[in-house]
Amino acid sequence: MFKRSLITVLFLLFMLNTVSTAYAEVKDSRGYTSTKNDAVVMEKLVQFRISIEDFLKERLGFAEEDIQKSKDSGKNAFDLAKRNGITEKQLKDSIIEVKCKKVDEVLNKGIITEKMADVMKNIIKSKTEKWNGSFNTISF
Question: Per-residue pLDDT tens for 73-104?
Fold first, then answer.
């Protein structure tokens, strides 16, 4: 049972981090048919993918020009945040908060179980805490 739950969680995480949507009809091993409509609904319900640049602009109010200047000068997201009085910990905590709220939304809609949500939140926290501030390495 645990192995099946783990596989399900890993599959969900994989699906949440993919950009494209599968638009074909597919039958899984249990005979369930997934259609284009299912994929579109899932994509709209679970929008976990956001770039660090978009996060900095939309959630923290950074200008696109400032972000680009930081990238061009070899600085990372922590350097940019620090210039505006935001610590590394505050930036990471903000990212974790946004991502965990998305997991809660999916949980509240009944798409995943509470156990799956806990696993997903732990993965989000772990990945974010290990993040080095690079504009290219964190996957939202």
Answer: 999 999 999 988 999 999 999 999 988 998 99
Q: pTM for this one?
A: 0.63
Domain boundaries, the chain: 2-20+47-130
Long-range contacts of 119-127 (CB under 8 A, 24+ apart): 119/6, 119/9, 120/9, 120/12, 120/13, 123/13, 124/96, 124/99, 124/100, 125/96, 125/100
Residue whose structure tokens are 């994989």: 14
d(CA 40, CA 71): 33
pLDDT, tens only, 10-30 = 565 555 554 333 333 444 443
Burial group, residue 108, by CB count within 10 angstroms (0-12, 13-18, 19+): exposed
